[in-house]
Structure formats: structure tokens, C-alpha cells
Design the sequence.
DNA sequence: CAGTGGTCTAGACCACACT
DNA sequence: GTGTGGTCTAGACCACTGC
């Protein structure tokens, strides 16, 4: 009894339980043991007349390419392929997962659309990384009002503080921790054309970023997210930001060279790694007198 | 001499000149007359050894599905299918353009990804519209700090002004007009929970929005962009926003109920219709004391 | 040259919506 | 049932990369 009605060596891929950090179970094993009592994912009508509804808690099986996407995601998460490296070719993955190349392609397409993978014709498919030049400041949306980011030169980073402390209630909630759990706190400024323009406070889960020091931060010229990848194996995949206009207070105005009460752009960012796990809370204040935060709506 | 080397009735689609508003030339005619001297788009190696470089100004021919995408775009732009209507099925389009269904599918996929089309399984593919409920406020990124947009109730719109005037230099430049050209100017507020929260000034090309009046704006409950679609045939496809933190001045503070000098979020939006034609310049001031501008980075 | 991703086609079946 | 988009497969050829 096979799960699908198509002719040649069809694959029966079940929606893998996304829970747990372990490497996914061997694929063939799943296939070999799956046809006993578990509901059949697709195309079962040829042999059984059971309706697609598999039960009260049946989580609905996803299309094959979504399951492949999930398996690739698990390999990324588990570190089987590291940022910057190439993943196996489409043909190899098709063989591994026992599906056609087209199905693997569609899975990779979606991952590439979300910037988790990067395809390079003739070379292969690579795990996206924050260490690449053209992706360097993908998450930094501040641009000069006139001229472009190139003409302004690179941002000058200055780290003011880095220490381990216990998470307050709101920090813990944002990061999915418990109040009192250890977090790493960082404060830094970013300057454009000699002018400090951004003042940021960061909180990172202490567990994942054990050993991060101010000295380590200052030692490299790479973006912080590139450092997180290489030193801690944490790749930031996406982020949500909340923007407000606020007035500068006496604590922060000096760092940015403005008067108390001057309008500043407040940017609170929650950055996620694979599988929507929050890994960084960042609260920034931006001077926007000669810069602006750019955004595309579509 | 045919342009492609594949077996059954291949289509020779040339990159249509994107210039000019006219309906694209008949497809079969292009195919019939194309093999004379114009450079062959793809797969010419079987008959000619000319390198892909077709000349100093050779604009490089695009893949078939990109050309199909362009043709569909022209039909959308030309109004052959209006917002909310369904477009022909994939099979019909494949027949019309003399390509396979899969190629049409890929073209539609990209247009759907950019929210120009909406696919509905079992029903068809539809031209996206701002008149739909769930897309209603896709371009409004302000959210309450606590609770969600639903609990807050709908925004209450109030139109303060609407008049025809001559474009200043900067307004004209943004809209691709000449200084002095006619534009429609609109001022309005948006209130959440009785509190005016957004004060916006809009400039629209006078040519395309001839006849827009304050009375017409106030008469409907639909979003402004839905009105633009139904009354003026202008569909806003995407927009770019530039955000700054500014201080309220004596002219605008009363509308939003804040003191002069209070921090406000300044949002300048340039909205585009098909083919990247700018159609609206909007300058808004947002109160962000109990709201925030949300943004997703990925 | 071989290997990679990119495009195009053709045909099959599925899930869904309307009638 | 018919027609729609959604998924999956298979095979072909192309364009690019690097040996």
C-alpha cells in the first residue's frame, strides 16, 4: 500500500512535527512505517475511501513542497548547512527526499523568496548570511535625505556597554523568557559622517549568547548580525519593528547631540531566527533631521 | 525559420516596448512578422551563431513568462480587466498567448506575489482591489499599542479641504509633472476612538483626478484608494514612505490635539499605479502616543 | 567539459466552487 | 458534473560557472 497514486516511486511525506530541536527522523523510515494507521496525506482515494478529514485534531497535511520546505528548514536550523555554504543541488535533494526536482524547486523558491536561501545560476543554492556586502545593512532602514548611503560612507559603530543582567518582565516577555532569566545587554551608537545618529539598546537571551563581551563586539568590522552567525550560530531571519515619535530626554540627548525635547524616532525591533523564535530585542533612537526611515508598501 | 527549437508550436514573444499607452499589438502578428531581421530572443544557437549580445543598445530579451507578465500588465493598465473582476483562466491565457499553461502560471504567480492579482482556488484569478475588506487598510501601518485594530473600531474620516491648485516645484517633481501644472489638493484627518490621530495633505495629478470634490470624498465610506479605482480608474499598486520624527507646530497641533513642539511622526508617501507611474503624494502627521507604525523586515 | 540553476512544456491528478 | 486554480511529475533545452 502506497500513499500516492502516481506511477513512479512516489514519496509519502508526512507533516513533520515541528517541535523539538533534533534532526528530523530519517525520511525513508518515515515512509516505511507510515502506512499503518496514520492518516494518508494525499491521493488516498484510489485505495481507501476515508474522507480527507483525519480526525478531530487532524492538523491537515500540507502539500509535499511545504513539507520539503519544512525539512530543509530543519536542516538549516540544525546547522547541517551553515550560512554562506551551499546546500545540495536540487537533484540531490530530490533524490534524498524521494520527490521530483520540481517539487524541491518550489520549496527552495519559497525559502529564497524569504531570503533564507540565495540561488546562484551555475553555482548552486547558498544559505543566506548577514556577512555579505550587499545584504549588509538590509535591516537598517535609515537613509540620508540627500545623496545615497554609499556617498555617506560606512556607519561608524561605537560600543558603550555590554553586560550580563537579569531580564525585567517586559524584556523577558518579548524574548520568550521568564523574568529574572539572564540576558546580555548592549548599548551602542552608530554615526554617519561623524555625527552620532542612532543610539541603541539591545537585549539578547543570555543562554544563546554566552560569552559575548564588549571587547569581542569592538574587535570586528562586520555587522553585528554577521558576528552572531559566526560566533553564536544564530541567524536573524526577520524582524518586526514598531516606530514612534518621541522627545529626547536628558539621558539620551547627549549621545545624539540634540537638546532635551527634540523629536527622535523611536524604533523597537524584535528579531527572529528560524521558526519564529525571538532572539533579540532592540530599542533604538534615531535622529531624523537629515535622515529618514524608508519603507516600501506593497 | 522559427525562433525557438522546441517541438510543438512554440511562441516567439518579443519584449514589448513598454512605452506608450496603446493596447499591445496582436500577438500572432508579432510572431508572423518577427523572423525577418530582429534579433531572435532565445534558442537561436541552433540556426545562427550570433552571440547573445544583439547590439550596443540591445535591451536583452526577457524570459517568456516575463513577457507574458508584461502583456498581462498592459491589459490591467489598459483597463481590459477592471479591479474586482476575474481575468481569463490560465488555459485561456495560454491559448491566447500561445504558450503553455505553466508559463502563464508563472507570470500570474509573480503578479499575485506583488498583490496585483488574487488567485482563488476553484473560482479564478481576480484583479486586486482596494475595495475589499481584508485589504482595506493594507497601506495604513498605524496600530494601537494595546489591543488590535478591530477592537478600536473603524477609522473616522473627516475631510477638511479639497481644491484645485498649481503644483509647486517639489510637488511637481515628485509626481512627474511640471511646476505650475494643475493638481488636486486634499486635507483630511483620521480619528481612532474619537481622537484625531492622523492629519494628511494629499496632492493628486489634476489631469487624472479631474472633478474630485470634497463633497464626493465625503459621500462614501469606502477607502480613498477604492474611490480612486471606481471613479477615476486609478489603482494604487505600491508606495514608498519616508518617516521622520518632527515637532508639532502651531498650524497643525490643534487638529491633533497636541501642544506645539510635541513629537509627531511625519510620513511622506509617494504612491504608484501600474508601471511605476507616481499618482499621489501624501504628507501625513501621526500622533504616536498610544499608536505605533508597524513594519516587518525580512 | 560537466554540473548548476532557469525556463518551458505536457500531462496527470487533487481541492475547491458553483450549478 | 464542469471548470477553476493547486500540486506533482518527467523530460527537454538554455544560461551560467568553473574545471
Sequence:
Amino acid at each position: 500500500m502506497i500513499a500516492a497514486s502516481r506511477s513512479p516511486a512516489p514519496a509519502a511525506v508526512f507533516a513533520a512535527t515541528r517541535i523539538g530541536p533534533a534532526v528530523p527522523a530519517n525520511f525513508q523510515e518515515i515512509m516505511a512505517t507510515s502506512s499503518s494507521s496514520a492518516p494518508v496525506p494525499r491521493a488516498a482515494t484510489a485505495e481507501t475511501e476515508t474522507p480527507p478529514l483525519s480526525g478531530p485534531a487532524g492538523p491537515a497535511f500540507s502539500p509535499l513542497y511545504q513539507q520539503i520546505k519544512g525539512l530543509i528548514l530543519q536542516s538549516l536550523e540544525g546547522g547541517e548547512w551553515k550560512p554562506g555554504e551551499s546546500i545540495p543541488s536540487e537533484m540531490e535533494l530530490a533524490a534524498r527526499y524521494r520527490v521530483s526536482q520540481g517539487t524541491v524547486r518550489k520549496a527552495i523558491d519559497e525559502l529564497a523568496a524569504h531570503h533564507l536561501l540565495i540561488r546562484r545560476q551555475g553555482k548552486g543554492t547558498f544559505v543566506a548570511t548577514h556577512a555579505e556586502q550587499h545584504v549588509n545593512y538590509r535591516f537598517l532602514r535609515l537613509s540620508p535625505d540627500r545623496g545615497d548611503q554609499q556617498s555617506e560612507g560606512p556607519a561608524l559603530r561605537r560600543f558603550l556597554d555590554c553586560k550580563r543582567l537579569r531580564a525585567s518582565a517586559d524584556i523577558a516577555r518579548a524574548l520568550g523568557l521568564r523574568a529574572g532569566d539572564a540576558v546580555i545587554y548592549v548599548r551602542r551608537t552608530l554615526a554617519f559622517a561623524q555625527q552620532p545618529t542612532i543610539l541603541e539598546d539591545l537585549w539578547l537571551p543570555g543562554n544563546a549568547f554566552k560569552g559575548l563581551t564588549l571587547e569581542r563586539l569592538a574587535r570586528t568590522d562586520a555587522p553585528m548580525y554577521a558576528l552572531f552567525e559566526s560566533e553564536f550560530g544564530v541567524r536573524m531571519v526577520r524582524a518586526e519593528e514598531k516606530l514612534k515619535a518621541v522627545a529626547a530626554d536628558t539621558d539620551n540627548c547627549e549621545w545624539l547631540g540634540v537638546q532635551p525635547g527634540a523629536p527622535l524616532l523611536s524604533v523597537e525591533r524584535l528579531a527572529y531566527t528560524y521558526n519564529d523564535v525571538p532572539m533579540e530585542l532592540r530599542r533604538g533612537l534615531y535622529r531624523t533631521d537629515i535622515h529618514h526611515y524608508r519603507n516600501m508598501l506593497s
Notes: The interface with chain B takes residues 113-115, 138-139, 141, 237-247, 261-266, 268-269, 286, 288-289, 292-298 of chain A (CB under 8 Å).
